[in-house]
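User: Fold this; tokens only.

Assistant: Input:
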Amino acid sequence: MSLLEQIGLRALRRMDPEAAHGMALKALNAGLGPKAGPVTSTRLRTICAGLDLPNPVGLAAGFDKNAEALAPLSRAGFGFLEVGAATPRPQPGNAKPRLFRLTEDSAAINRFGFNNDGMEAICSRLAKRPPAMTIGLNLGANKDSADRAADFATVLRHCAAHVDFATVNVSSPNTEKLRDLQGKAALAALLDGVTEARGDTPCPIFLKIAPDLTETELAEIAEVATEAKIDGIIATNTTLSREGLQSTHKAETGGLSGVPLFEKSTRVLARLAMLTDLPLIGVGGISSAEDAYTKIKAGACAVQLYTAMVYHGISLAGDIARGLDQLLQRDGFATIADAVGTEKARWT
């Protein structure tokens, strides 16, 4: 991390968290972020669910909700980006304050509620995207929708031509009853509608799941996802658990992300790797190359991060990718693919 980035992070951490988030996006668009582009090597280059990635380190949805910083983010070291969530109509989300730093826990709690500019505005920005970067869109549903399942298909139908993959997000805890769509029957119907909305576009579809699922629920999701012939699963979204937290903000409602989520999300990931052959993307608590490597060995063909950048800066993506390259070399793996799932039994 450069001295300038250290100074910037200290300044941002003195601000309200949501205001700091907006300032970080402005700083990126002002040219203050890394500019080297994706970190890559023969070991790091990989294919995940048909996506040809220079490295397996992705940006998780939620950082660039409205696709406002695609160009600078494409130069920040990531192998791929996910923006959104996008809903059919713009919506303000939940009342503020709705984002909280848990500094003692290297974590965050958010209850944003899918605040976004809506699919039309987001799609217009995606139409001007950097062509060389793999970019996906997180699909959401409007809070007041009469048919939330249909909302996911509506967004994909509108935006599919401008994205490389799409994620069905039924696992956010911040829209009432949204997680009910993870039930077997509801999920099967929803995924059928989304895959139909994809049409002839070569757009892989991922399902993003919660970490707070029972063993039975997880098995049902793996079964439905396989039968629906989607392209992969993202494990996991934020958790409702507050176990072991130290911060004064630990009682805030919303989804918990960051270091405390690492073990729980990794166990869900490894269990999924036992239940299905679908490609998996590991998310939750990654803040180092070792963390990313653990997710890969637990079954992930790629990983995503977000909260750790609050504490370690945007340069973390490139640092993790370079560190992964060294870990693969140390352990004698010629490629990322060779390491995928080699230690999944450790986590189940």
